[in-house]
Amino acid sequence: MTTEQNETQRTRTYSWEDQTIGAKVGATLSGIEYLKGMMDGLYPAPAIANTLDMRLESVEEGKAIFSIVPQEFHYNPIGAVHGGVFCTMLDSALACAIHSTLPIGTGYTTLELKVNFIRPLTIKTGKVLAIGTLVHPGRSVATAEGRIVDEQGKLYAHATTTCMLFPSK
């Protein structure tokens, strides 16, 4: 490694909690109870949230908001936030908007996520919000839509999702 490469090297350290704790507790609560408990620090945040430094800002029935302040570790090789970060934020917000409406014992998984990128995110953008809103609360399939916006409301991406529901027996 050259001296120049060594001077540009970055280090980032973070931790996360045992993910089986949340999975066990989550099965005993309604979606809104579980998500609010997570926000209040009663249950561990998903490890991916710590990996991306993403926060669940608010949740209400049918709506969830996540935030990120773009950092260099979010960047792709061309100097902007990687599209996968956009997708993870939107998948989280849209799926949690659906999750917030689910009764005790109902699970779900993303079947489809469609994302439209409007403009790049960079460190200069500042804090952005991924806002997910329920569109259709079906019995076996639910849909949601969402947007990534900055604090002034400027649009960076929008998306739709379809989630398969696994109702309790």
TrEMBL record:
Keywords, ordered alphabetically: Hydrolase
Upper classification of the organism: Bacteria, Pseudomonadati, Bacteroidota, Cytophagia, Cytophagales
InterPro entries to which the protein is assigned, alphabetical: HotDog_dom_sf, PAAI_dom, Thioestr_dom
Organism: Spirosoma arboris
Domain of life: Bacteria
Gene Ontology molecular function: 1,4-dihydroxy-2-naphthoyl-CoA thioesterase activity
Membrane-spanning parts: none
Protein name: Hotdog fold thioesterase
Residues covered by the Thioesterase domain: 79-156
NCBIfam families, A to Z: unchar_dom_1
GO cellular component, one term: cytosol
